[in-house]
Amino acid sequence: MHRRPEEIGSQPPLRYPPYKSNLWRAPSQALVTIPERLRDLAVPVYGYLPIVDTDNDLTRQHAGEPLGERIIVSGRVLDEDGRPVPNTLVELWQCNAAGRYRHARDTHPAPIDPNFGGAGRTITDAEGRYEFTTIKPGAYPWGNHPNAWRPAHIHFSLFGQSLASRLVTQMYFPSDPLCAYDPMFQSVADPRAQQRLVSSFDLDLTRPDWALGYRFDIVLRGRHSTPFEGRV
Amino acid sequence: MTTPRLIATASQTVGPFFHVGPGGTDALGRMASASAPGDHISLRIRVLDGEGAAVPDALIELWQADAEGRYSLTPSLPVEPPPLFSGFGRLGTDADGWCQFDTVRPGAIAGSGQAPHVNVCLMARGLQRHLYTRIYFDGDAGLEADPVLSLVEAERRATLIARESSPSAWELVIRLQGDGETVFLDL
């Protein structure tokens, strides 16, 4: 019997009470399953906005250099069969080294860095590789529960090759003690799937005398995605 | 025998700060240039939560066929000049939960048996996974026979059908939860 990823905990459930904002926003009715033959698969995957050469280097987008620990984040985008997903848009966004987003609704009393916007975009190459240069984001408090802190994380958005492969996720850093207390990270029950959200330090990615390197491979659902296998 | 598959990367919420990145531009709300063929429409979408409150931090993506019912068949590289019709739109909701796309009314996809529709991908703070739904057009002759609408209980189908509020201006309210909850799809 094939089980859906949600059942084995590799995807977070739609309803997850420990995440307070979920309470009035998660649907209460079951999703309606669309048979594969009725799914629109061959859809265009992103809009037409040109990418410029500093889009994947968040340390070079302003007049001066941002404060913080310079890092390289790189990896491969794969499908569930391990095949590379080339030519797909990867977007990321994050707070600065002090844990503050450059966003009007972020009221955390940490400094804004005038030299850090916190957003990047790139396209995967023929082997599905992407690379960003950025600074390591800080942890920050949030209002979910008393003394709640988000672990340092970078938001990622990917399209893949079909509507079903769309993914928005967050990348975490190795050995972060805050992950154990974070409802977002903990909403993924399967420990192997949790590990997939954690980047690994990679000395080979490190640029000597310049930046540390973290590897983050991303696996997208494919055209024949797991949930539909073995179904009548 | 099937080979072991890799575990797909888990979804995580888009959070409240996506305007820093993917939601930072209004440019992707203009899906069709003035000279794109077809019936030009505005498509206004509002997102409400389970208490009926506006959701001011949802990110809405639309994926649709052109007026002839054709999807772009290959992933589209960001190119200049942009095509007349992109087929993809993306906007964050405003303080009242609204966003407005300028597009063309999609055509029926030949041979699909499906009524013309717009695919919707909705992300928001509070949602750990994005939600898929569809937008159909009120009064369309193909609604009755649409095989996806037919999978939906009759009394809930209206949640997927936009109404024309004034000529060429279409509106749909997406209710995330509770009374009149929108039908969300599992792809």
Low-confidence stretches of chain A: 226-232
- CATH fold-level topology of chain A: Protocatechuate 3,4-Dioxygenase, subunit A
> If you average the pLDDT of chain B, what whole number results?
92
Oligomer type: heterodimer
Give the overall pLDDT of chain A as a whole number: 90
Largest sheet of chain B: 8 strands, mixed
Q: What's the layout of helices and strands?
A:
The complex is a heterodimer of chains A (232) and B (187).
Chain A: H1 5-8, E1 32-33, E2 70-79, E3 89-93, E4 119-123, E5 129-135, E6 140-142, E7 148-150, E8 153-158, E9 167-172, H2 183-186, H3 191-196, E10 200-201, E11 212-215, E12 218-220
Parallel strand pairs in A: 2-11, 2-12
Antiparallel strand pairs in A: 2-5, 3-4, 3-8, 6-7, 8-9, 10-11
Chain B: E1 40-48, E2 58-64, E3 88-92, E4 98-104, E5 117-124, E6 131-137, E7 161-166, E8 169-175, E9 185-186
Parallel strand pairs in B: 1-8, 6-7
Antiparallel strand pairs in B: 1-4, 2-3, 2-5, 5-6, 7-8
Textual characterization of the structure:
The complex is a heterodimer of chains A (232) and B (187). Chain A has 232 residues and is mainly β. Chain A has one domain: Protocatechuate 3,4-Dioxygenase, subunit A, CATH 2.60.130. Helices cover 6% and strands 24% of the residues of chain A. Chain A is built from three helices and twelve strands. In chain A, strands 2, 5, 10, 11 and 12 form a five-stranded mixed sheet that branches. Chain B is an all-beta fold. Chain B has one domain (18-69, 80-175): Aromatic compound dioxygenase (Protocatechuate 3,4-Dioxygenase, subunit A). Chain B has strands at residues 40-48, 58-64, 88-92, 98-104, 117-124, 131-137, 161-166, 169-175, 185-186. In chain B, strands 3-2-5-6-7-8-1-4 form an eight-stranded mixed sheet, with no helix packed on it. In chain B, strand 5 (117-124) and strand 6 (131-137) form a beta hairpin. Chain B is globular, with a radius of gyration of 17 Å. The mean pLDDT of chain B is 92. Chains A and B meet through strand 1, strand 3, strand 4, strand 9 and helix 3 of A and strand 3, strand 5 and strand 9 of B. Strand 1 of chain A pairs parallel with strand 9 (185-186) of chain B.
